[in-house]
Amino acid sequence: MRFRIIPNIDNPWKAVRFLRLMRPVANKITRHDSDADLRFSRRHRAQNGRADAEVTKPLVEQLANRGFRFTAQRQQVYDVLLRERDHPTAEEVFIRSKKAMPDISMATVYNCLTALVKCGLVRQVMLERGAARFCPNMREHFHFYCDACDEVFDIDLPERSSIELPKGFKAERLDIAIHGRCPNCSSK
């Protein structure tokens, strides 16, 4: 006779704890699957240089607060954005994610980016007619777009900067793009 346990877990950290407690049981049942998970986990830690719990805690909390669940694909996409803060497009995120997670699809990357934007972990940046770019810097800042090399740079807002709005208007966020040439391109 086989029993199937279906836990009622309302908190992501309870799910992580439950899975860790069940790992010895799972090892007895399917040693092959557990070894593959362990290899992926070690590879993931080696690539990112951090322990999984350190990486996932803020991500899991933000996702849970907005009704999303944590997935390895969302973690991978978020890691790609944090690793190189160069405002990549969805296609660039897909190419970078594919290196560490070969079976990830373009649709999954788009869905992950949408979830990260809705959770307030990533900002979607629209620069004229180009593809949307994604920025993990959630502080208020400007974007400087170099027209020569197509790079995007974060420019911090000066302290005590404010824009006078007409009466009755209430700003929720600031989205300003400055166009010009970066130092490398202007010296050429």
Strand content: 5-15%
Question: H/E order of the elements?
Answer: HHHHHHEEEEEH
Individual helix count: 7
Radius of gyration: 21 Å
- Secondary-structure-derived class: mainly alpha
Strand order of the largest sheet: 4-3-5
What is the CATH level 1 assignment of the largest domain? Mainly Alpha
Structural notes for this entry:
The chain has 188 residues and is mostly helical. The chain has 2 domains: 12-28 and 45-123, Winged helix-like DNA-binding domain superfamily/Winged helix DNA-binding domain (Arc Repressor Mutant, subunit A, Orthogonal Bundle); 139-161 and 171-188, 2-Layer Sandwich (Dna Ligase, domain 1). The chain is 48% helix and 11% strand. It contains 7 helices and 5 strands; from the N terminus they run ααααααβββββα. The strands form 2 sheets. The chain has a 3-stranded mixed β-sheet, with no helix packed on it. The longest helix is centred in the first third of the chain and has 18 residues, at 12-29. Mean pLDDT is 77; it is low at 28-54.
Question: What's the helix and strand layout?
Answer:
Layout: H1 12-29, H2 31-48, H3 52-65, H4 72-83, H5 90-100, H6 106-118, E1 123-125, E2 133-135, E3 141-146, E4 152-156, E5 177-180, H7 183-186
Parallel strand pairs: 3-5
Antiparallel strand pairs: 1-2, 3-4
Structure characteristics:
single chain; 188 residues; mainly alpha; Arc Repressor Mutant, subunit A; Dna Ligase, domain 1; 2 domains; three-stranded mixed beta sheet; two-stranded antiparallel ribbon; 7 helices; globular
